[in-house]
Amino acid sequence: MIELRVLGAVEAWDDGRRADLRGPRHRAVLARLLMARGRVVPLDQLIDDLWRDTPAERALGSLRTLVSTLRKALEPGRPTRTPAQTLVTAPPGYALRLDLASVDAWRFEDLVRRAAEPSVPGRAAETRDRLTAALDLWRGGAYAEFAAEAWAAPEVTRLSELRLLAAERLADAELALGAAARVVADLEAHTRAHPLREEGWRLFALALYRTGRQADALTALRTARAVLKEELGIDPGLALRTLEEDILRQRRSLAGAVEREPGPPVRAAVPAVASRPSGRVEQPLPEARRPLPGRGPALERLGREAQQAAARGVLRVALVGGAPGTGKTALAEAALHGLAPGWTATRGRCPEEAGAPPAHAWAELLRTLGGAGQPAPPDLAPLLDPGAGAVPESLRFRTHTAATAHLAAAARRAPLAVVLEDLHHADDDTLTLLRRLPTALAASPVLLLVTFRTEELTAAARDTLAALARCEPARMELQGLDATAVAAVLRDLAGRTDEPAPDLDEDTVRRLTERTGGNPFFVRETARLLTAEGADAALTRVPPGVADVVRHRLGALSPGAQTVLRRAAVVGTEVDIDVLLEMCAPEGDGGPAPDGGLAHDGGLGPDGGPAHRGAAVEVLEEALRSGLIGEPGPGRLRFASALVRDALYQDTSRLRRTSWHARAAAAVERLRPADTGALAHHCLESAGPRDVDRAVRHVHAAATAARQGGDHQEAARLWRRALAVHERLGTAPLVAAPDGCDRVVGLVRSLTLAGDLQGARAQRLSALERFPADGEPAALAHLVACDDMPTLWYHRDYAGGPDPRVTGAVERLLAHVPEADDEVRCRLFAVLARELDGVGGERAKGAAAEAERLARRSGDPRLLVHALNSRLLQTHGAAGLAPRRARVAEEMLSVARGAGLGAAEAVARTALLQAHAARASFREADEQAAAVRRLTAGLGVPVLDLVPTLYGALRPAVAHRHDEAARRYAAARDTFGALGLWGAEHAVYGLALFCLRQQDGRLAEHVDLSLREYETWGRGAGCGATHALTLAAAGHGARARALLPELLTMRRDFLYELRLVAAGLAAVRLGEDDIAEAAYEELLPAAGELAGAGSGMATLGPVAQYLGEIAEHLGRADDAVTHYCQALSLARRADAPHWRDQAQRGLRRLAPASAFRAPSAPAPIPVPAPAPAPAPAPAPVEPAVRAEAVRAP
């Protein structure tokens, strides 16, 4: 049975064996589904939670791949293509179908729920046993690696609070059983970790007293009083005050009645809130986190409201608003847990789902109140019975009156806390009853806490909040968290004090420190944003609390200083004083923008800004005195932090920002025209329908500058902004607009250079779909051919194949482009060859050849390099083409170097690396790898690093350092996982492990991973051969035999020889001689190469070794000896001891042991010339090696 564990790291166990959940994103999907507790999680919710900043189409593909992988992990024995039973598809998303025993968190909650209150007579032992079992399930923090994610925070907080409650109840049970000495140390640590929890202090002091430490008990209570006073400004609650008085008077009741026998079986508990609000406390553990860090002020305010309600016997109202995920529910829970003993608490939530009964939230909280010993009167039956149907208006009035009277009666027994959540979903009946409370409960000790999403409030809900205004409610908009030191924040995130926070590299920490300016409050707020939404959000957005602080400080300044600061915020974090002063100048004095004509009215214009340059300088000095902005050097200003600047900027209306950006653009264009980035930014932000083309011109200049500086991410960001502006303001569809395709092309090329091949292809295909039928052919050709970055890597999904949108557009254009237009036709043929790479056969080769012919005729070196790159991609169409690949690469290298084309030179050298590696010429391959790394270091194109990085793992693999190789392959997978490669980094990793395990005789260990790769990439990618061999090696002959039709139907690309070897070996294992013969004949031209090394990424070793094994199986002993001799020579050349031993074992099988003597030195390997058809006989081996290997004594 599958068991899922989330009370610590997210893990899955199947019959005592840990299941492979792959990477963090797999575990995140599983965690998000588990939090739904069997309910369906819609696709859009999953994508919004886990892929917030990723395009939807890319995220959806990734999600489906992850779900497929998770299904295999959760149901390893499920036959292929049978419906999943655990992780099921349930419109509109996915759900987990599991029983309670399958998830540790669910078992934990069940045990806590079934554990009686320790005060229940006769049940302390049973309570202790159940709570001990419950707490033993915890291995760390709940959902440890995702605890700070916004989507996980509510559930993590809920589980952590329940853990705290269980720990306190356990200590209470131990005290009831007379085990005070056993819990003293734990309770002392608990009060240090959670100093604001009064119940912890009560238990600690009581345990000290019962162990004879009366003075220590009083000291603990005094410490609790001081902490509460200093942190919250409140006195201890009734329970602590009573305990202190009892200790001073040494009341006999403090000794307690010790239970010695367990009581009767425990019944299911109802929510008990009368004396101890529902929640929990954890025993202090290294991974414990402070609950709701930074929400102390809000909790303190709620605590004061509760105190006033109880002390004065009046209704106090607290209104807590905020955006989704700002912790309104968590704050409400914490407020209830912080109530003094003796309070009654109840909660209800307004449901989002349609069809809920009227006033459902009130029915829910009234039922909870009944479960706490406050049974509802009969008059409430229409409200509490969901099947009662429509209620007449007169009966509704009586029901609402009965409800308020029942709440008032409950409050007469004990102070009452009522929490009404999600008011933005409230129906009319809920709002009507809420509006009656100020009158009905005015003289009752009630704390009414209402939560809502501010932006989603209905008009009726807003009217209701207005009606509550006469109560003078405490209003809280959750915008920020408490300020703490940077180190403390990182310790909180890491869960301990001696390690850095997870997922924070040095660069991110440095940038966050710069962004926050070291302000402790800014640091904590930004750190929470980082953990909830990622580094991009933390580095670009302003946490709400930060904005409040900035507004407060800004409000202390004069209107003129405020306006100057807001205009400076439009300029940026770094401000050119001349540009700012020109923005502030009145019209006709250098300030051309229409809002700049500031009247000379005592220093302030009509918008509060300075009326002239002198006044601007004066208010600038005032702003400098505020500390919000500084003067780092002559002519420059700098905000105290980027967060201060962003807060000011976001608080300025869009209308005003647009106007000020226009002024800034004009000022920069006049004063600093070389600052293309600033000019593009201001033009984009101020663009109207008539300004789009001007803005895009400046974007083009800025993106070009960014590309030339190697910052392709910045170039892509600029082009995305330009496209967004056009989509918002353009008068024609993007691809139909004049120069519209140029903007898409700019984005596609920038994304490609940045390594996001998947995003680049998605943009290109989307534009092709939207291109109008009557569009300009030249524009279409520009769009089709824009995917022209030199590469040896696929620019499409490896498992998907050519896209008809691309090939169709190329065919249509070739029919219309004049024959004399060499450049356009060359690029189109090159695109076609690239699109058909690996599957296009003669059609792809013909397209590459035609592109090369046209390029040579044009005399353009750039075209020739482009065409040769396409030709390189076609040098994998048959086995043994490494020499041909080397010749094409040599010419491409020569042309690229002559034309100064760095990326093309890197690709040519990578191809040479591959050709040398294929022939075991590793010294030459190493030289090319080093040259590529030197080139790519200054290009900023991560895809160009792919093969050299993987080659760095291939080298220890060749030397038989397989553990080191596996580590390097894993590191490469993780490094390139951030690129948009359609998950190909996982496929390469799986193939590399296949090679290592095949050579180590451990293929049986590879079955699960092989199956995942096969099902992920499909038969078209050629995974059938490797999977069949893996199955056969693991003894699954029938399953392997089912793949026979796929053994020789594989893609002809850089892995062709490797997969041919796998097909041949699988055929040998399965006794399929015809297939083995076919593989043998196809592999013969590659007898002098290493299988797979031509990719530069992974290898199975000498092809000749496997030719020998196939020949030996087919009964061709002489041919086998020849091949084993070739393999031996290659092994010596590669300095690969395991290959040498493998070849020698083959020779010993075919010759007497006394007749064999290994060659003393490697000799050159004659490489067979490439031919269109397989050679009829084995490739030649030098006579000396053969004679020495089999010579008789």
Automatic annotation (TrEMBL):
Keywords: DNA-binding, Transcription, Transcription regulation, Two-component regulatory system
Transmembrane segments: none
Region entry Disordered, spans: 272-293, 586-609, 1158-1193
Highest taxon of the lineage: Bacteria
Keyword DNA-binding attributed: yes
Gly residues biased stretches: 588-608
Protein name: DNA-binding SARP family transcriptional activator
Protein species of origin: Streptomyces spectabilis
